[in-house]
Amino acid sequence: QAINKMPLTGGARVYAAEDSKAELEFEDGSSIRLAGPAQISLNQLSFAPDGSPVNQIEIDSGLVYVYARLNDHAGFRIQDSNGESFAITQPSHLRFKVEEHIASLSVMDGGVEVLNDGTNSTIRGGETYNYILGQPESAARLARVPQENEDAWDQQRDRYDDQYAATGAQYSGSDNPDAYGVADLGYYGSYDDIPG
């Protein structure tokens, strides 16, 4: 069972039960939100030789929101349980849904590169990519992003991050409002960075 602010490492699995939610924050300011029932695997959480974060996440089931900020030149990939893989190549906000044998990737903002379709095509903001798990050739695109019931919750969390990250940056002395943990520091009150 998870607790608030619990650190996670590569190889961990995160499950949100029915009618529950979970949120993970990465060192580059990116976040993943699960609307239960949903499960993800943190296949890789590491650093490249140049020090940039490398995140590879597997969406096993359910409804998952990804807000990839890609600060510090982070590499961010997502995949389904059958290995269909996507590279997030620019700051992006997306929703990935896996139900039984069907997967749907909706890009609200940004862009995601499809890695397994042989064409390296890009799914752009405002598009949805639907396919049958294990059959990438079944992919069909929609020129819209259908609404989901949990979209309002995801948007509320985005507003929280934006509001408190900006507040926290004022106190942290950082020009980067997306710095890891700044939103929480802004939310919980004022603080000082005392050298020494």
**Beta content:** over 45%
- How much is the radius of gyration in Å? 17 Å
Structural class: mainly beta
Gross geometry:
globular
Portion in helices: 10-25%
Output mean pLDDT: 84
Task: Name the assembly state.
Answer: single chain
Question: Can you write the helix and strand succession as a string?
Answer: EEEEEEEEEEEEHH
- Separation, N- and C-terminal Cα atoms: 37 Å
* DSSP summary: helix tally: 2
Low-confidence stretches: 168-174
Number of strands: 12
Note the main sheet.
12 strands, mixed
Secondary structure layout:
Layout: E1 13-16, E2 21-25, E3 31-47, E4 53-68, E5 75-80, E6 85-88, E7 92-99, E8 102-109, E9 111-114, E10 122-124, E11 127-132, E12 135-142, H1 151-172, H2 182-187
Parallel strand pairs: 4-5
Antiparallel strand pairs: 1-3, 2-3, 3-4, 4-7, 5-6, 6-9, 7-8, 8-11, 9-10, 11-12
Q: What is this entry, summarized?
A:
With 196 residues, this protein is mainly beta. Helix content is 14%, strand content 45%.
Please give a structural write-up.
A hairpin with a 2-residue loop joins strand 11 and strand 12. The chain is globular. Strands 1, 2, 3, 4, 5, 6, 7, 8, 9, 10, 11 and 12 form a 12-stranded mixed sheet that branches. The N and C termini lie far apart (37 Å). It has helices spanning 151-172, 182-187, and strands spanning 13-16, 21-25, 31-47, 53-68, 75-80, 85-88, 92-99, 102-109, 111-114, 122-124, 127-132, 135-142. The chain is mainly beta.
